[in-house]
Amino acid sequence: MKKLIEAVLNAKRTVALTGAGVSTLSGIPDFRGPQGMYRNPEAEKIFDIDWFDRDPGVYYRGCRELVYGFEKFRPGPVHLALKQLEDAGRLAGIATQNIDMLHQKAGSSNVWELHGSPLWHHCRICGKSATFEQVCSQLKAGAEVARCVCGGALKPDITFFGEMLPEEALIAAQSAAIGADVMMVLGTSLTVFPAAGLPNLTLQAGGKVFIVNAQPTALDRYAAGRYPDLREFAEAVKNALA
Ligand code: CNA
Ligand code: ZN
Description:
Elements: H1 2-10, E1 14-18, H2 21-24, H3 43-46, H4 49-54, H5 56-63, H6 77-87, E2 93-96, H7 102-106, E3 111-113, E4 116-123, E5 129-131, H8 132-140, E6 154-158, H9 167-179, E7 182-186, H10 198-204, E8 208-212, E9 225-227, H11 230-241
Parallel strand pairs: 1-2, 1-7, 2-3, 7-8, 8-9
Antiparallel strand pairs: 4-5, 4-6
Helix pairs in contact: 6-11, 9-10
Bound molecules: carba-nicotinamide-adenine-dinucleotide (CNA) and zinc ion.
């Protein structure tokens, strides 16, 4: 971990790419870790746009507790460490694949949400928007699927499989990755593209990539350093900035 911390302290521009692993420390299951949602074969349907249009109940049943229970989850040690790095002027931004809004809750200001978030929902028929709170209150009142006044299903602005990524966030994250001399890859299996391609942009531009993830990734052999433990990472950041 010493090499990673030294690189960050000496870098001109560091960016982070985060995945579901950083939020397992807050109690939110990931997809592909040992306790991940993909142990349930139905899980692949939950964030699939064709399934949503066929039966929005698949998403709402699968995410009732999780997404609409997001209020009860608190930022974990990695979210807090990244906020500290930003405050210390050591982190230019965070590209996240997460949809749980925990980086913002931790206070990080430069967050590119590559897979969107449920902060807003839109009607699949008329396009009208609804807030997270409006959807939560429908679900609390017993609705199986949150619906627009026109009767259409409300879909969260989360990028589902089969949809394009939010263009602005993707372009910002890509240019940050190209301009970074250090990229920290934290808690992601690096399997969902194009997000998983961001570290390649840093490598191609001559920057260094460090990976902190329990399971191996396809980029491990190109990494300047590779560590399994996200808690240890958060602790090392805290100590370095103390
Ligand atoms: P993933 O494929 O589930 O990979 C997560 C990785 O994190 C795995 O390789 C784990 O080994 C690793 N990991 C988990 N916990 C720890 C830990 N404590 N220490 C070290 N490593 C750990 O998730 P990705 O983010 O790579 O996949 C992208 C998908 C998952 C995105 O589309 C997300 O929207 C989606 N997702 C997001 C959330 C969330 O917002 N919190 C939760 C579940 C899935
Ligand atoms: Zn509508």
